[in-house]
From TrEMBL:
Listed name of the protein: UPF0291 protein HB912_03970
Residue spans of biased composition, Basic and acidic residues class: 55-67
Region (Disordered): 55-75
Highest taxon of source: Bacteria
A cellular component term, taken from the record's GO annotations: cytoplasm
Compartments reported by the entry: Cytoplasm
Keyword Transmembrane: no
Primary location group: cytoplasm
Thylakoid keyword on record: no
Length: 75
């Protein structure tokens, strides 16, 4: 996950944008940090999905085939 300092900076820039507005440099910084955050989020979400196994009440593995294929490709 993204460092706490970077998340705090994203939030700080967001608050500043709503109150005073951002300079051109701050807008670039904000966009860069947001892209990094989204990339990190997607990566972690993908790992979570790939490591999830779905079992129905009868005990059968009903994990979607697409997820199973992703697991096989990683091995």
């Amino acid at each position: 996950m993204l460092e706490k300092a970077k998340i705090d900076r994203i939030n700080e820039l967001s608050r500043k944008k709503k109150t005073e507005g951002l300079t051109a440099e701050e807008k670039i910084e904000q966009e860069t940090l947001r892209e990094e955050y989204v990339k990190s989020f997607r990566s972690h979400m993908r790992q979570t999905i790939e490591n999830t196994k779905i079992i129905d009440p009868k005990g059968n593995d009903i994990t979607p085939h697409k997820v199973k294929e992703l697991k096989r490709k990683k091995k």
